[in-house]
Design brief:
It is a single chain. This protein has a single domain, classed as HUPs (Rossmann fold). Helices cover 46% and strands 12% of the residues. The protein has seven helices and five strands. The chain has a five-stranded parallel beta sheet, sandwiched between helices. The model is unreliable at 181-191 (pLDDT under 50).
Length: 191
């Protein structure tokens, strides 16, 4: 029996590792890299490079959508000063998941999902609620999971170290970068 096709929104290479390891036995996984929130451009290139390395390691297809931060900035307009984890993050999750659901629907995937819930700093309940709402809108099943369970995050850190992947020090947008007072030059691999 053929596996169901899953379009997996991948926020970054490190977070994808354990998620792929968990899902690959059950699904025919295609990675979907849509992250217009990532700032600056050099950071985006680093994360995309790590993502390509992960796709190659697991022999998975990787779809890379255009990196257009202006679209994301417009989408979160008015929420720039929200605290980390607040309304801006909710909008960001929705924007990226909606693009994933739209692509999944157009390309006849059975499911769409995201690696975002592996992060201990992300609200998996909120992310899954957004995914379920988009499931209704786009009529494609959302894979509801909390990948940080069963030590998922720590396993992703180990995979990242073993593969020599670049690990970022902030979520991705310039607002989270400012919160953690990190310049793009301070980010280093294998944190």
């Amino acid at each position: 029996m053929a596996k169901k096709r899953l379009l997996l929104h991948a926020c970054c290479g490190p977070c994808s590792t354990q998620v792929i390891e968990t899902l690959k036995p059950e699904f025919d996984v295609t990675l979907f890299f849509y992250n217009p929130n990532i700032y600056p451009q050099e950071e985006y290139r680093r994360r995309l490079s790590a993502m390509k390395k992960v796709a190659k390691e697991w022999k998975l297809s990787l779809i890379v959508e255009e990196h257009n931060p202006k679209i994301w900035m417009e989408y979160v307009k008015g929420a720039e000063k929200e605290p980390e984890g607040g309304k801006r993050c909710e909008l960001c999750f929705r924007h990226r998941l909606e693009k994933t659901a739209e692509f999944a629907k157009k390309n006849n995937y059975d499911f769409f999902g995201t690696t975002l819930t592996i992060s201990p700093s992300k609200d998996s309940t909120l992310i899954n609620e957004i995914g379920k709402k988009l499931q209704q809108e786009y009529k494609v099943d959302f894979l509801e999971r909390d990948f940080k369970k069963n030590d998922g995050y720590n396993k992703s850190v180990e995979f990242s170290k073993n593969l020599g992947l670049y690990r970022q020090k902030y979520c991705g947008c310039e607002y989270s970068m400012n919160i953690y007072s990190i310049s793009s030059n301070e980010a280093s691999p294998n944190e």
